[in-house]
Each structure stands twice: as structure tokens, then as C-alpha cells.
Amino acid sequence: MAEAFKGYQGRALAILKSFNVRVWSEVKIESSRGGFSGILLPRSESDDDKHIVLKLASGYNVGIAVETIQNIEEHGYKEAHYKIPEKEFPFTEGRPSVKLFGTGGTIASRLDYRTGAVIPAFSPGELYGAVPELADICNLSTEKLFAVFSENMGPEQYKTLAIAIGEEIKKGIDGVVIGHGTDTMHHTASALAFMIQNPPVPIVMVGSQRSSDRPSSDAALNLIHATKTAAESDIAEVMVCMYGPTSDKYGLLHRGTRVRKMHSSYRSTFRTVGDIPLAVVDKKGFKMLKDDYNRRRQDRSVKILPYFEEKVALVYYYPNMQPDIIDALVDNGYRGIVIAGTGLGHVNKPVYPAIERATAKGVAIYMTVQTLWGFVHMFVYDTGRDLMQKGIVPTENMLPEVAYTKLGWALGQTDDLEKVRELMLTPIRDDITEREPYNGYLVFQGGLDEVEEFIKKHHK
Ligand code: ASP
User: Fold this and answer.
1) Which of the pair, 297 or 217, is modelled with greater confidence?
2) CATH topology of domain 97-304
3) For residue 318, how far is its CA from the centre of ligand 1 (angstroms)?
4) Which CATH code of 2.60.40.10, 2.30.30.520, 3.40.640.10, 3.30.750.24 fits the domain covering 2-77?
5) How far is CA 344 from CA 133, 376, 430, 455, in A?
């Protein structure tokens, strides 16, 4: 009996009993807030007794307040088995070897049937059980480094990842895949692009916007594309491999220093900013869009620079920002500040004295633009010139998050601000580019039917 009402108690339990419905049944609910149809999910004992939880056809879970419920009707029953069967990954002679590092995020998630919540879970056997196509591509080995949602990734995790990847490269791996939450994947991608220099093999970050228990999940396709890229592609760089257009047609490979998550829920959320993506990938192969990239090599040499100063901040300027924001960072021992300024790279006049005080104390301050596309130009207006005199260094067209990870990485290696400046302004892998091509602007990169034309030219 308990199983039929798993996790429900008090008022929530009473209402299920009064309408004679069990967990995992398909129900229609009438409430004072409107009608809902979905599967009644179990709850965990620690949850409140004020809501019942439904999984809607869209895949989202909703909690419905008990006191709003007028009627519940059961019209089917569907016990879900979200446990993915584990199978041993087969070894096939002659296939490339790929290492998959798990860090967490939605791609490593499945539904927790106790609570109806999506939780991080990862095991190599589960992965193969869920996506058997991976065995046609490579010999896969896996390692769970972390199991966190990506807002919890940071300097320590970047360093651990860089070192682990360096070791795999030295041992002879043909390619690396990193499963990662999408929210901060672009931060990690740029940090790794700085920490792992001139790798001989592809290093491919992948995630998913929708967990694998949802019909529209992008998890399996993204994983297949990423694994194929790691195993077979010629691009030996840190990349992000994610859903291309709004359909299942292809994935895009984005350079780790020029990529950004641009939509909170679309599967086609990652876009190359200020440039075009490196390549298109589908189950059959690759179509290169750019030809200046680091080629795959047979040697095992790679430079791992796992440094990161934690006392670096990224400040998003807003009108009426007060100087105490900058003062507070300096007083708290911050050694570097990246500002995402307005337009060509501006902040208001009241902030100037704080910037002067900060640079006089040896804090490294760099300017980026919150427009994301285009270059910082601090010579155009007097305001920009004043700011540069106060010691702010413009960072060309480096993305704000990339400037943040690069400054953390640079200050992690040296106290010499001249050396930091040299590191910041010397492009490592297109973190700064000479110019931005016209088709590097957002609207030309697919994801919407009316702008698919650009991609179609390259992908027939
Ligand atoms: N919150 C999740 C994360 O970034 C979302 C995802 O994986 O897509 O870890």
C-alpha cells in the first residue's frame, strides 16, 4: 500500500486516497488554478504534505497545491523504470580510444523516482546501456571526476580536469570528452583552453539541455556527436559540441574561447560569438567551416598550465553603479577585475576614482563589452581615454567570461602585472581575433528557420 502513495503524507496523502489514485497513474486534475494532465510522481519523505507532483507531457514537473484541487481522475497507469540497465562497454580492436570525464550536469542526470527531481548520476555501464551507438565509434573508458551542477564548477575543478586530461594524453588517448552542465560550460571551456596548450587530440565538452528521461532530450545525440568528434576529428582543440539547429539534424563544434550559452532552455543554446563555428558534425562525419585550427598529431606533447587565482571578479556594469562595488573588491583582497562595460567599454564617472585607487594598489583591471559582439574601443570617447589613463586595459574582442578565466589563469602564474598584461593580450586560441566576420554575428548561425541558409551552404 505504501508504494502506491510513495512519499505522500498528511493532507497530500489524504487527497490521493479520497480520489482513489496511486503514484505512477496518469491523471487529470481539476483545480482552481486550471486543469493539469500528467503522471503522478512519487515524493520523498522529506517533502511537504501541501503539494502533489505531476510530470507533464512536456517533461516538466509541477507541484499542485492540495487546497486548490477540486477533482482527480485516473485514466491510466505507467510505472516508470528510470534505472538504465548497465552493460559492459565492448572493446573492439582498431577503434580509437576515447576517455569520457564526467563532471555532472543534466547530461549525467536521470530522474530520481523517489522525488521526481533530476539528480546527477553517472556510471560508464549506464552510459553504454543508454547510448549503445557509442560502441560503434570508439573504445570508451569513463571516469567520474565530479557530480555537480555546473554552477558549482570553479578553479579547483578546472585545475583537476586539466591535469587529468594531460595524464590521459600522455598515456596515449585518441580523444577526450567532458560531460558537463551547460550553464557554465563556456567558462570551463575557456579555462581549459588556457590551461591545456597545444594538445595533440580533440578535447570535447558536451552537455544537454533536457535530461534523458524526456522525449525531446538532446543528451544521446550530443554525446554521439561529441564522442565521434573526440575519436575521429582532426581538430586538436578544446571545443564545445552541442545541438546545432532547432531539429536533430546536426551538432556544431565551437571553439572553447569563443562560445557562449545564449538561451536558457533551447537545445540550440550554444553559439560561437564574433566568429563562425569550427565545424558541423553529424552521425556520418564532419564538415569544416573554418580551416585555421590546431591539427591532430601523433606525438604526446602537451603543456598543462593548471593555475588560477581565485581573487578575480567579473563585474557587469549597470548605469548608476557606485564606486563602493570596486572599493569592496579591493578591500577584500581581489587582485584582478574584469569589467563588462557598456557600448565600446564604458562605466560612469563616479566609478573612475575607485578604478584609480584600485590600479594604484596593483589590482589588474581589464575592460570587455557587454554587447558580446564587437571590440572594446576606448579611444573613441574621452571617457574611454580617461579610463585607460586610470589603468584599465581594453581586451579587444575577448568575451567577458573568457577575460575572467584568462585573468584568473594569468594572475595564478605571476604577480608581475606587465607579464599578466602580455598574457592577457596575446591570443592563445582566438580568445582575441583580428576581426569578426560578417557571418560571425548571431543571426547567421542557424537555430531559426529563416537563418538556416548560412549553414545550408556548408552542409548539404
Ligand atoms: N543546471 C545544469 C548545469 O549547468 C543545466 C545543464 O546541465 O544543462 O549543470
Assistant:
1) 297
2) Rossmann fold (3.40.50)
3) 27
4) 2.30.30.520
5) 47, 5, 20, 30
Cell 571590440, residue?
Answer: 375
Same fold, 97-304 and 312-425: yes
Centre of ligand 1 from the C-alpha of residue 414, in Å = 33
- Span from the CA of 437 to the centroid of ligand 1 (angstroms): 30
In sequence order, what are the beta bridge partners of 393?
366
Active site residues: 106, 182-183, 261
More confident residue, 189 or 114: 189
CA-derived radius of gyration, the chain: 25
pLDDT at 45 over 60: no
Is the whole model's pTM more than 0.70, yes or no?
yes
Average pLDDT for 214-235: 90
pLDDT, tens only, 282-301: 999 999 999 999 999 999 99
Q: Within 6 Å (CB) of ligand 1, which residues are found?
A: 105-106, 149-150, 181-183, 207, 209
Question: Which CATH number applies to 312-425?
Answer: 3.40.50.40
- Phi and psi, residue 437, nearest 5°: -70, 155
Q: Which residue has the cell 560531460?
A: 179
What are 178-199's pLDDT values in tens digits? Answer: 999 999 999 999 999 999 999 9
